[in-house]
């Protein structure tokens, strides 16, 4: 087990989306979108980084003592989130994965590739 660095206090918020949902959104824009329009793609899953880290550790059966808080980078944004209303209403796209399903699948994929055992 290696220390897991978390920048600052870990309370920075990000909008999380599964890669398959992101790809489907891009396909929807290519097939149905209007030229010159901008379509934001987001998962409607705003989560603090520290909550993601703890969920990953819990899924892998690892202790939270692996978390090591490190100095945050200067001017690090506290929140990145997207309003996906336009792509949802105009193109009929919405994420199909719940946050929990996507995180679980992603952890399994990385663990399999890296030979990590929970």
Judging from the principal axes of the Cα atoms, what is the shape?
globular
In CATH, the homologous superfamily goes by the name UDP-galactose 4-epimerase, domain 1
Which structural class best describes the helix and strand composition?
alpha/beta
Total discrete domains: 1
What is the terminal-to-terminal distance? 11 Å
Element pattern in H and E: EEHEHEEHH
Give the strand order of the largest sheet, numbering strands 1, 2, ... along the chain: 3-2-5
Percentage of residues in helical conformation: 40-55%
Please tell me about this protein's structure.
- The protein is an alpha/beta fold and 118 residues long.
- It has four helices and five strands; from the N terminus they run E-E-H-E-H-E-E-H-H.
- The relative contact order is 0.27.
List keywords for this structure.
two-stranded parallel sheet, 14% strand, alpha/beta, 118 residues, 4 helices, globular, UDP-galactose 4-epimerase, domain 1, single chain
Give a quick precis of the structure.
The chain contains four helices and five strands; from the N terminus they run ββαβαββαα. With 118 residues, the chain is of the alpha/beta class.
